[in-house]
Amino acid sequence: MKNKKTYNRGYVILIATIAAFGGLLFGFDTGVISGALLLIKNDPELVLNGVTQLSERTQEWIVSITVLGAAVGALSSGRITDILGRKKVLIITAFIFAVGSVGLALASSVALLIIWRLIIGIAIGVASYTVPLYISELSPTHVRGALVSINQLAITVGIFASYLVDLGFANFEDGWRWMFLVGLIPSLILGIGMFFLPDSPRWLMTYKGEDKARKVLDKVGEANKEEVLQQIKANIKAENKEEGSLSILKAKWVRPALLIGIGIMLFQQFTGINTIIYYSPTIFEMAGFGADGANAVYDAILPALPIGLVNVLFTIVAIYLVDKWGRKPLLYLGLSGMIIALVALGIGFTFQNSLGDALKWISFVSMIIYIPFFAISLGPIAWLLISEVYPTKIRGLGMSLATMVNWVTNFIIANTFLSLGKITTGEMPNPAGEGTLVNPGGAFFIYAIIGVLGLLFVYSYIPETKGHSLEKIEEHFLNGKHPRDL
Ligand code: BGC
After folding, report:
1. What is the whole-number distance in angstroms between the Cα of residue 180 and the centre of ligand 1?
2. What is the spatial distance between Cα 60 and Cα 438, in angstroms, rounded to a whole number?
3. pTM
4. N or C: which end of the chain has fewer CB within 10 A?
């Protein structure tokens, strides 16, 4: 760890910040639907054939098709980023985000809305894989963790910004169109910004030769330039040997790492985070917020704001604590708090008839408790662990597999939340007076049970990676030792 301070700090932070606009768009475009949905479902231009509202199934598709697109995007990212380079891929992704934002804003039917949400989703999936990869490949070793974490922070900032935008346009005519259109601004910043940044040394070395790679390392001020160049060369050699053979996945020592990556993503999503991120205004509407009058949509979006803000703040706390307390204590603490909040939500909605107005506040308080516990644990740590546990040879493959599992499981939750509520707890009267709403009580109980299984998984399978070098972690797995014994 020599020459710790000699890297070009300003330039490196600029690179990470511009690339993190990809993370911000991931957050913005997944979060914006939460408020937009309340306007979309009642828009007379979209609701045809004399019905008063889009069906729950249609609403679920509008929300979740983006997530399905992201799974496809994540899966194909490994190859495209190798062929085109990280920089070009991020510029193209920014272009798709920009076109998608305009397309969504102009969509004149549910079908078009779903198609544009799918296209935006593909861009989100590509960004979710490429941004951390690009930042980590350009970061000097000793600041890599912090710089990569800027991406998770950007995701939460994007979600919070989307709630603010939703609130700002809640009372506008065609408000949902404006909400989507705002996504154009960060897309332009990402696209134009990336244009001026270099590609990563790792990619340049493979495809454009050593000189170009050396030049970029000079620019970022990598103090151990020659060492890094040698290491990149050695890794490329090792990887070439394995290229094209998936047989490595069968090797016994690879399995624990794969299980950890897939498992942690599964629990990150199946404990229900995105029911709250995507549907919180819908849940607040179910609980009775915005029940009366002209400001109904505004009143249902408003309580989502503190949720978005708490998410940002506690992600900062997590970045601070994760290397001090370690991963496992934060996961135990986070999951326990989440389970308690989920049980409270389940009880609240199940007994809504006898609770009346109190349900509003039970749902709000439970969610505001749930979010910080997620933000200090499964939020950042799931992404962190998948960048730590894979041996070099399978890092790309392992990361894209885990990223895809993240999006597929996210899709399952986003696509079933409203229906699941209907199956498990039935419908409940709409506090606004007309018709019925889904009762999500049962869904929350199911997420709580999965949370308990998550605790067992963390106890028995997650290694404590705090303070261990990647080489040490790799050696542990290569020796066939149990992950828990690290
Ligand atoms: C998850 C997203 C989630 C976000 C909330 C991320 O780590 O992967 O699915 O919406 O955190 O902050």
Report:
1. 19
2. 12
3. 0.88
4. N
